[in-house]
Amino acid sequence: MMINKFIIFIFICLLSFLVGAIPSGYLFAKWYGISDVRTIGSGNIGASNVGRALGWKAFIMVFLLDALKAIIVLLWAQLFVSSFILLVIIAFGVLIGNCFSPFLQFNGGKGVATLMGIIGVFSPLVMCCAVVIWLIAVALTKVPAIASLCTLCTLPFLSYCFISISFIPFLLAASFIVLWRHKQNFKLLKLHYFF
């Protein structure tokens, strides 16, 4: 029985990685005539870069698609897994897949939208707060990378208040990955090129 549960868990982890790895932004841009969105703007396949190429509606669509990958996987996983820790591991698989997609030579998005989807499953309130913080930061700075940094800084506090202190290690690891995926943006910010 335990072996069967372990096999199911491993299968769900693998599936979560593969679903997370679906390059939503790349496919969306390709559908609308951009052969490879990585050749324009910041070179990323995420919502921000697709939005620069195709407009704000495209940004919203890709953001939602990346968030939905996490939401769908985690809601489905809850049918088989009840442990909070195991669900967090599955969530991490989705995020890793999004940031390091095997479909694009282990390149991918920056993980912000997918992380918001993950948080939304554990606490819709925290997700809404994070989205509002991100939108305010973007409005004030005009720089999505800085907005992401501001939002990530608030997540441990929001998690402590509304989810669980045991969720904080995941958020710290996830934040490190998301920030690392933004490293090129921060290098450009030093040169006063804002994205």
Total number of beta strands:
0
Structural class: mainly alpha
What is the H/E order? Answer: HHHHHHHHHH
Unreliably modeled segments: none
**Tertiary shape:** globular
Number of domains: 1
**How would you characterize the largest beta sheet?**
none
Q: How much helicity do the residues have?
A: over 70%
Radius of gyration: 16 Å
Mean pLDDT: 88
DSSP helical segment count: 10
Quaternary: single chain
Q: Alpha-carbon distance between the termini?
A: 51 Å
Q: How much of the residues is beta strand, in percent? A: under 5%
Keyphrases for this structure?
195 residues; mainly alpha; 0% strand
Summarize the structure in words.
- With 195 residues, the protein is mostly helical.
- The chain has one domain (2-190).
- Helices cover 73% and strands 0% of the residues.
- It has 10 helices and no strands.
- The protein has helices at residues 2-20, 24-31, 47-54, 56-77, 84-99, 112-122, 124-141, 144-162, 168-181, 183-190.
- Helix 4 runs antiparallel to helix 5.
- It is globular, with a radius of gyration of 16 Å.
- The termini are far apart.
- The model has no long low-confidence stretch (mean pLDDT 88).
Concise description?
This protein has helices spanning 2-20, 24-31, 47-54, 56-77, 84-99, 112-122, 124-141, 144-162, 168-181, 183-190. The chain is an all-alpha fold and 195 residues long. It has one domain.
Task: List the SSEs and their pairings.
Layout: H1 2-20, H2 24-31, H3 47-54, H4 56-77, H5 84-99, H6 112-122, H7 124-141, H8 144-162, H9 168-181, H10 183-190
